């Protein structure tokens, strides 16, 4: 049976030197492999057909809930959520779902490596953006007033 291999950076920490508040950082370069086992084509096809059948059945029940009675029409949203979740769970076990799950786990690892800004940095940058937006709004308004007066001078 063929096996997919996905390479991503290994989670290894090292202490930062002075000036960085002794926080931990990630060292890149080391790799860790994760294997994604592949199922047979017939099983994969059956799982995809099950996903399609679940979705079609959910859509049919939602569309024809008026025929089934008022008690079913009140649960349309809940039924839609359950159908989507069930389809996602079944799709998770297909070859493509397994590869996506391995990719998702690797991306969570990469997300942990991001150096997030501190609250002070976030507030400072946000304040700077607000000030720049206000300044440009005033400049654009000033150009509008000048243009309006210029047009009124020549036309009237």
Automatic annotation (TrEMBL):
One of its GO terms (biological process) is intracellular protein transmembrane transport. One of its GO terms (molecular function) is protein transmembrane transporter activity. It is found in: Membrane. The chain crosses the membrane at residues 45-65, 77-94, 125-147. Keywords: Cell membrane, Membrane, Protein transport, Translocation, Transmembrane, Transmembrane helix, Transport. One of its GO terms (cellular component) is plasma membrane. Belongs to the SecE/SEC61-gamma family. Essential subunit of the Sec protein translocation channel SecYEG. Clamps together the 2 halves of SecY. May contact the channel plug during translocation. HAMAP family: SecE. Component of the Sec protein translocase complex. Heterotrimer consisting of SecY, SecE and SecG subunits. The heterotrimers can form oligomers, although 1 heterotrimer is thought to be able to translocate proteins. Interacts with the ribosome. Interacts with SecDF, and other proteins may be involved. Interacts with SecA. This is Protein translocase subunit SecE. It comes from Francisella tularensis. The lineage of its organism: Bacteria, Pseudomonadati, Pseudomonadota, Gammaproteobacteria, Thiotrichales.
């Amino acid at each position: 049976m063929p096996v997919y291999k996905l390479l991503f950076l290994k989670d290894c920490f090292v202490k930062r030197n002075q000036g960085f508040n002794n926080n931990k950082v990630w060292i890149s370069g080391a790799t860790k492999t994760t294997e994604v086992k592949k199922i047979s084509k017939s099983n994969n096809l059956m799982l995809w057909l099950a996903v399609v059948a679940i979705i079609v059945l959910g859509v049919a029940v939602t569309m024809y809930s008026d025929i089934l009675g008022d008690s079913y029409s009140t649960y349309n949203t809940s039924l839609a959520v359950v159908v989507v979740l069930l389809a996602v769970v079944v799709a998770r076990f297909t070859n493509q779902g397994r590869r996506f799950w391995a990719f998702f786990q690797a991306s969570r690892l990469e997300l942990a490596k991001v150096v997030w800004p501190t609250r002070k940095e976030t507030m400072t940058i946000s304040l700077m953006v607000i000030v720049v937006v206000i300044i440009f709004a005033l400049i654009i308004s000033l150009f509008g007033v000048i243009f309006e007066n210029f047009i009124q001078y020549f036309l009237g």
